[in-house]
Design goal:
- This protein is 32% helix and 24% strand.
- It has four helices and six strands.
Length: 108
């Protein structure tokens, strides 16, 4: 941890938060090999637009749960509707409802 000689506790908290955010980001191995690929969370996708899943992030249990429902790297996904951040999506010929927390872990 970095120790600040002069500065406020707020500056220290911002620095710790920024380093924690950088360390929590991980990409799928296929994306790392290709270099910089623009990705965004599923929550930012437009309704009716067909997208491809680039990565699924989160804890191991969350990733396994989403993969068991068909949210795997390379799968086509379409947002059917959005309501208060929650999504209904088509993935692998199935319609699935996701809350915004789960949808934010799917990168397109």
């Amino acid at each position: 941890m970095t120790k600040l000689v002069c500065g406020s506790k707020l500056q220290f908290a911002k620095k710790v938060r920024a380093t924690n955010l950088k360390s929590n980001i991980r990409l799928a191995p296929a994306i790392q090999k290709k270099g910089m690929v623009p990705i965004m969370p599923l929550t930012f996708a437009a309704t009716g637009e067909v997208n491809t899943i680039k990565a699924v992030r989160g804890r191991n249990e969350t990733v396994r749960f989403l993969e068991s429902m068909g949210f795997v790297e390379g799968a086509a996904i379409t947002v059917v509707s959005k309501l208060a951040g929650n999504l209904i999506v088509n993935v692998k010929d199935a319609r699935v409802a996701l809350n915004k927390d789960l949808a934010s872990k799917i990168m397109i």
